[in-house]
Every structure is written in C-alpha cells, then in structure tokens.
C-alpha cells in the first residue's frame, strides 16, 4: 500500500467536503428557508391590521403562506450524512492542529 497516496486522497477529500459545507453555509440556504417561515408579507400585514381594527379573532395561520414540504428520504439522508461529515471533519482538524501544536512546542 502506498500510504502517501491514501493520505493525499483523504486530505483532498476533506478539503472538498469542507468547501462544500462552507459554500452551502455562505449562500445562506438554510437561513433563507427558516427566515421565510417567520416573515409576513406586506399583504398579510395589511390583512392582519384590518382584522385587528375590525375586532376579528386573530389566528396566525390565516396570515402565513403554507409551504409545501419537500423533505424525502434522500434529503433527510443527505442532511444526516453532511452532519456526520461535519463532525468527522471537525474532530480530524482539531486532532491535526493539536498534533501540529505539540510538534511545534516540542522543538
């Protein structure tokens, strides 16, 4: 076995996985989907204010748009795999930097 090639493959794989996670975080995909749930549209705010003035009973579900749930087994599996990769990457990088720190301090 050529340990150098295996090491290079692992490092390159970790870098690619890190970049993928970093890009998905920087694009704000998850923040966007979560914030979309919490924001009332202008139209919904106007209806809400009119209902308050008219003294109607207020129900939040009347003002929020219903969104379709696109979760399926593949998206759930993808999220679980990415979470495992993130945890593994964090442990690997923490261990790597600890070893580098020890190596630098020993010299």
Could you explain the architecture of this structure?
The chain is an all-alpha fold and 107 residues long. It has helices at 3-27, 29-38, 42-54, 73-106. Helix 1 (3-27) packs across helix 4 (73-106). It starts with a helix and ends with a helix. 0% of the residues are buried. The mean pLDDT is 83.
Total of DSSP H or I helical runs spanning 4+ residues? 4
* Sequence stretches where pLDDT stays below 50 over 5 or more residues: none
Average pLDDT reading: 83
Largest sheet: none
Please write the string of helix (H) and strand (E) elements. Answer: HHHH
Structural class designation? mainly alpha
Keywords, separated by commas or semicolons:
single chain; about 110 residues; mainly alpha; 4 helices; about 0% strand; elongated
């Amino acid at each position: 076995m050529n340990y150098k090639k295996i090491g290079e493959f692992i490092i390159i794989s970790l870098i690619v996985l890190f970049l993928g996670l970093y890009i998905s975080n920087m694009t704000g995909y998850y923040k966007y989907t979560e914030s979309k749930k919490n924001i009332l549209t202008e139209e919904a705010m106007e209806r809400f204010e009119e209902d308050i003035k008219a003294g109607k009973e207020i129900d939040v579900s009347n003002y929020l748009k219903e969104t379709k749930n696109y979760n399926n087994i593949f998206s759930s599996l993808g999220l679980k795999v990415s979470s495992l990769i993130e945890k593994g990457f964090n442990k690997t990088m923490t261990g790597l930097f600890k070893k580098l720190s020890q190596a630098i301090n020993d010299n």
